[in-house]
Write a structure and sequence with these properties.
glycine transmembrane transporter activity; single chain; metal-binding; 2 strands; Na/ntran_symport; mainly alpha
C-alpha cells in the first residue's frame, strides 16, 4: 500500500483542530504530544517561542544602534522640541520632559524592544503569541503605521524640492518675484519672501480643502523620487537598509555640529539661547505643559509603530536590550536639546537682523517727521525719540515695535519652522546656498531614517502573515510603495498641506496611544510582568527592579490613559481647524474642516482602533477557529494506540467548558517540534497544519526530492528530533497550574 506523506502546506493563521477530532476513517483517534520542561535556571538557557531560526539578523552591533537612532531621532527633534521649549517655560520644560522620559518613554521602549528580541517576531506575531485574542494589536499598529508612512514621505518630497532649489544663486526665496512691469507681486509684498516661496511657488496652495485644484507636477515628480529611493533602501530589509543608516544616522550630527560652530559665532546667538532656555518655573503649574512633555516623549521615540519590535527581533537572544534602551534614550534626549541650541542660535541671529531692519525703518520715519536729525543717530538718541511719542502718535506715524523678545516669540513649529522661518535665517548667512544645501540634506537624512524604520515595522508585520511569506520581499515592498505613492496624490494638489495636517492630527494620534496602552496591558498583565522580568534576566543577566515594576504596572499605563483622555477631550471641545492660505491678504487663515473631511478623519481613527476589539470578539466567540499555536510552528497530530487514545479523550473531557484558552492550554506543557511514529503508513495529519493533505506514492516521494525542496521555517520546526515519543498525562486532576505555564507553547 502506498504510504501517505505530508506535503508542507500553507496555514491561514487561525485554524487548529480540537484534540479529539477524528483523524481517519477507521474509528480510532488520538494525539501524541511530546512534553519537555524548559530550562529556566540559568542565564544561558533562553527558549524562544516561535522564533524564526532563519530570521535576518544585524551584521553588527553598530548597525543596530545606528538604525534605531536613525528611526528614533527624527524631524520632531528639529522642528517640534525647540518650539515646545519656547512655549512651555524655556529651560523649565526640560524638567517635565526628563520626568516623562524616565516614567513613560524608557519603560515602554524596553517592552517593545525586549518582546521583539524575545519572540524574534514582528508586531503581529508577538501579540498573537502572547494570546490569539490580542492579534488585533498588531493589525492596528500596521494600519496606523501605513497612515503615517503615507504623509511622512510627503515631507521628504518637499525637502527634495527645496534641496534642488538650494543649488541656485541667489536662493529663489531670498527676494520677491516681480511682474511684467517690474513691480513686486502683491501677494509676496503682503507676506514675505520665504512665505511666498512656500505657499505659492512650492505648494501653489489652494484657498481651501473644498477647492483643491489640480495635481502639481513638480510635487508628483519629487514624490515619485522619494518613494523610489525608499523602495531601493528597504526592498531587501535590513540587508539593504542597514547599510544606508550609516549615512542617515551620522550625517545629521555632522551638520548640526557645523551649524552649531557657525551659529554661536553669529551676532544675536546668545540672545536667542537666553530667550529659549531662561526658565519660567511658573509654567510648570500648567497641566498642558506636562501633557506636551508626555506627548513629545511618546512620539519622539516612535512607540507603538511596531518598528521597535521589528528592530529587536533581528537581535540575537543574548543581546543586552536594557543597555540599548538606556543608550538610545539618552542619545534621543541629548539630540533634541542639542538641536534646540543650534536652532535658536540661528534664530537669535535672524531676530537681531530683523530688529536692525525695523530700527532702520523707524529711524527713516522719525527723521522724516523731524524727531531725529539724521539717520546716523545713536541707539540712545533713537530710544529717547521713541519714548517721547505716545501710542497714538506711533500708530499715526506707522512706527513698529522693534524688540528682540517679540521677534523670538514669533518662532514657528513643523513645516513653518523648516521652510519659512529657518530659510529666512539661512538667507542672512554669507554663502547662503551652501548652508541651505547642508540644512535640507540634514532634514532629508532625518526623514529617510525615520521612514525606513516606519516601513520596516509595517513590512515586518506583513511578513508575519503566512501567505505573504511566500512572496519575495522585493515584490511586497514594491506593491506597498506603489500603493502609497498612488494614495499620495492627494498630497500633490493645492490642498496637499491641509491634507497632511489632517493626517498628522487624526491618523497618528489616538490610534497610536491606544495601541501603546494595549501593549503595556498585554505584556504586563496578560503575559505577566514576572515572566517578562524573567525573560529580560534570561537575555541580559539583569533583573529589572522596583523602578521598572512600578513604571510598567502603574505609572506608565496611567500616563498613557491621561494622554489618550486629553487627546479625545481636546479633539471634542476644540473645533478642529486647519490653516488655509489667503492669497489676497498674504496671511494664513484658520478654517473649519468640511464635514466630509471630518468623516474621513473619523474613519481613519476607527480603522486604527477597531481591529483590536474585532479580533478579540471574533476569536473569543470563535467566529474564527482560534489557532493557539499561531506563529510558533505546529503541534503535529499523529495517530496513537488505543491506550493513549483513551487517556487523551479523558483528559479533554476533564477540561472545564468555561476555562479560557490560556488556562486550558496550561493542562499540558509543550515543546515546539514535530515527532513522527515509527510506522509512516499510519501518518495522517488533520487540519492543525492549516492546509490540505497531499499524497504521493513511495516511488514518487524520495529523499532526493526532499533535499531539493527549500528549507522553510515550518519544515525546520517539523524535523524529527531524538526526543522519545512519550505522552506525560497528569496523574491528578486537581493539580494546580500556574498562568506562566500557559505560554510555554
Amino acid at each position: 500500500m502506498a504510504a501517505t506523506k505530508i506535503i508542507d502546506a500553507p496555514r491561514n493563521g487561525h485554524e487548529m483542530a480540537p484534540l479529539n477530532t477524528r483523524a481517519r476513517g477507521d474509528g480510532t483517534h488520538g494525539v501524541t504530544i511530546v512534553l519537555t520542561a524548559p530550562q529556566r535556571n540559568s542565564v544561558q538557557s533562553v527558549d524562544i517561542p516561535g522564533g524564526d531560526p532563519e530570521r535576518a539578523a544585524w551584521s553588527g552591533k553598530m548597525q543596530f544602534f545606528l538604525s534605531i537612532i536613525g528611526y528614533s531621532v527624527g524631524l520632531g527633534n528639529i522642528w517640534r522640541f525647540p518650539y515646545l521649549c519656547q512655549q512651555n517655560g524655556g529651560g523649565a520644560f526640560l524638567i517635565p520632559f526628563m520626568i516623562m522620559l524616565i516614567l513613560e518613554g524608557i519603560p515602554l521602549f524596553l517592552i517593545e524592544l525586549g518582546m521583539g528580541q524575545r519572540m524574534r517576531l514582528g508586531a503581529l506575531g508577538v501579540w498573537n503569541t502572547i494570546h490569539p485574542w490580542l492579534g488585533g494589536i498588531g493589525i492596528s499598529s500596521c494600519i496606523v503605521t501605513l497612515f503615517v508612512a503615507l504623509y511622512y514621505n510627503v515631507i521628504i518630497t518637499w525637502v527634495f524640492f527645496y534641496l534642488f532649489n538650494s543649488f541656485r544663486y541667489p536662493l529663489p526665496w531670498s527676494s520677491c518675484p516681480t511682474n511684467g512691469t517690474g513691480f513686486v507681486l502683491e501677494e509676496c509684498a503682503k507676506s514675505s519672501e520665504t512665505t511666498y516661496f512656500w505657499y505659492r511657488t512650492t505648494l501653489d496652495a489652494a484657498p481651501s480643502m473644498d477647492e483643491p485644484g489640480g495635481l502639481k507636477w513638480w510635487i508628483v515628480l519629487c514624490l515619485m523620487l522619494s518613494w523610489t529611493i525608499v523602495f531601493f533602501i528597504v526592498m531587501k530589509g535590513i540587508q539593504s537598509s542597514g547599510k544606508v543608516v550609516y549615512f542617515t544616522s551620522l550625517f545629521p550630527y555632522i551638520v548640526l555640529t557645523i551649524f552649531f560652530i557657525r551659529g554661536i559665532t553669529l551676532r544675536g546667538a546668545g540672545a536667542g539661547l537666553m530667550h529659549m532656555y531662561t526658565p519660567k518655573v511658573e509654567k510648570l503649574l500648567e497641566p498642558t505643559v506636562w501633557l506636551d512633555a508626555a506627548t513629545q516623549v511618546f512620539y519622539s521615540f516612535g512607540l507603538a509603530f511596531g518598528s521597535l519590535i521589528a528592530f529587536g527581533s533581528y537581535n540575537t537572544p543574548k543581546n543586552n536590550c536594557v543597555r540599548d534602551v538606556l543608550l538610545v534614550s539618552v542619545c534621543n534626549a541629548v539630540t533634541a536639546i542639542y538641536a534646540s541650541v543650534v536652532i535658536f542660535a540661528i534664530l537669535g541671529f535672524k531676530a537681531t537682523m530683523n530688529v536692525d531692519r525695523c530700527v532702520a525703518s523707524n529711524t527713516e520715519i522719525l527723521v522724516k517727521h523731524s524727531f531725529l536729525e539724521n539717520k546716523n543717530a545713536t541707539t540712545l538718541e533713537y530710544e529717547h525719540a521713541m519714548d517721547r511719542l505716545n501710542d497714538t502718535e506711533k500708530t499715526l506715524f506707522q512706527l513698529s515695535e522693534c524688540t528682540l523678545s517679540k521677534e523670538l516669540d514669533n518662532a514657528a513649529e513643523g513645516t513653518g519652522l523648516a521652510f519659512i522661518v529657518f530659510t529666512q535665517a539661512i538667507v542672512e548667512l554669507p554663502g547662503a546656498p551652501f548652508w541651505a544645501v547642508l540644512f535640507f540634506t540634514m532634514l532629508l537624512s532625518l526623514g529617510l531614517g525615520s521612514q525606513i524604520g516606519i516601513l520596516e515595522g509595517m513590512l515586518c508585520t506583513l511578513f508575519d502573515i503566512d501567505i505573504i511569506k511566500r512572496v519575495k520581499k522585493q515584490h511586497v515592498t514594491g506593491v506597498v510603495c506603489l500603493f502609497c505613492f498612488t494614495v499620495g496624490f492627494i498630497f500633490c494638489t493645492g490642498a496637499g498641506e491641509y491634507w497632511l495636517k489632517m493626517f498628522d492630527s487624526f491618523a497618528g494620534t489616538i490610534g497610536l496611544v491606544v495601541v501603546a496602552l494595549m501593549e503595556m496591558i498585554a505584556v504586563i498583565f496578560i503575559y505577566g510582568h514576572e515572566r517578562f522580568t524573567e525573560d529580560i534576566y534570561q537575555m541580559t543577566g539583569y533583573r529589572p527592579g522596583l523602578y521598572w515594576q512600578l513604571t510598567w504596572r502603574y505609572i506608565g499605563p496611567f500616563i498613557m490613559v491621561c494622554i489618550l483622555a486629553s487627546s479625545v477631550v481636546f479633539m471634542v471641545i476644540r473645533n478642529p481647524t486647519y490653516g488655509a492660505w489667503n492669497a489676497e491678504l498674504g496671511v494664513v487663515e484658520q478654517k473649519e474642516y468640511p464635514s466630509w473631511v471630518m468623516g474621513i478623519a473619523l474613519s481613519m481613527i476607527l480603522a486604527g482602533v477597531l481591529p483590536m476589539p474585532i479580533v478579540f470578539l471574533m476569536r473569543s466567540f470563535q467566529c474564527l477557529k482560534v489557532d493557539l499555536d499561531i506563529h510558533q510552528g505546529s503541534i503535529r497530530r499523529n495517530e496513537t494506540t488505543a491506550s493513549t487514545k483513551e487517556m487523551i479523550d479523558n483528559d479533554d473531557d476533564n477540561m472545564s467548558p468555561d476555562m479560557p484558552p490560556q488556562d486550558s492550554l496550561a493542562a499540558t506543557r509543550f515543546t515546539i517540534g514535530d515527532f513522527e511514529d515509527d510506522d509512516d503508513e499510519n501518518d495522517f495529519s488533520g487540519p492543525a497544519l492549516g492546509g490540505h493533505v497531499k499524497t504521493q506514492s513511495d516511488g514518487d516521494f524520495s529523499d532526493d526530492d526532499e533535499e531539493d525542496k527549500p528549507m522553510t521555517m515550518r519544515m525546520m520546526m517539523m524535523r524529527p528530533t531524538t526526543t522519545s515519543n512519550v505522552l506525560n498525562v497528569p496523574t491528578s486532576r486537581k493539580q494546580n497550574y500556574s498562568k506562566k505555564d500557559a505560554y510555554d507553547v
